[in-house]
Amino acid sequence: MGYFAITTLILVIIMVLSRVAILRVKGIEAMKFGEMDKKDYIAIPFVLLYFYIVLTSVIDLPALGTVLFKSMVVSWIGIACCTLGFIIFLFSLIAFGKSFRVGIDENHPDELVTSGVFSISRNPIYTAFLFILIGVFLIIPNWILLLYFVVGFWFINRQVRREEDSLEKIYGNEYKEYCKKVRRYL
Question: Cα separation of 61 and 1, whole Å?
């Protein structure tokens, strides 16, 4: 089951990098990570450690942390969460179109996307990430991965609030009206 968690994470990364590359070919610079706040780069070693912990659950490398419990039912719930997160992520990328950015882009914003999964959640990509994080934890119930979920939720919520401030500045009343109709997550 750990292979499912690894595969989900790798596919999400491939999808993001592919979208960034496709947009670059179209003349759109979608990689804006860390441009507004250099502290964003602090997350990179923690993300690499996360991948290491997940990877060590299925291959023979020194593992970090201990397993909290073993349950096939809980693992299947984790697979369902990862699958749901992956589907939400895929539909988010489709709905985003050329407006997709990694990070905040106040200098070259595209249109405000409010259709597709964005009519259900203002932040479907972050919602997808949260489903994947909890799913990976349920598949690999390592106490460090639980900590990652908790800290990940805090980090995602912090980023969402920063983006909301930026979107309100860029789109004004259009964004405020959208916020009245659609929830932040689900």
Answer: 17
Pick the CATH number of 2-181 from 1.20.120.1630, 3.40.570.10, 3.40.50.720, 2.40.50.100: 1.20.120.1630
The tokens for 177 are 């009206």
Residue 28, helix vs strand vs coil: coil
CA distance 51 to 149: 13
| pLDDT (0 to 100) of residue 36 | 67
> Cα–Cα distance between 98 and 28 in angstroms, integer?
8
Residue 103: Cβ-neighbour burial (10 angstroms; 0-12, 13-18, 19+): middle
Question: For 1-46, what is each residue's pLDDT tens digit?
Answer: 889 999 999 999 999 999 999 999 999 888 877 766 667 778 889 9
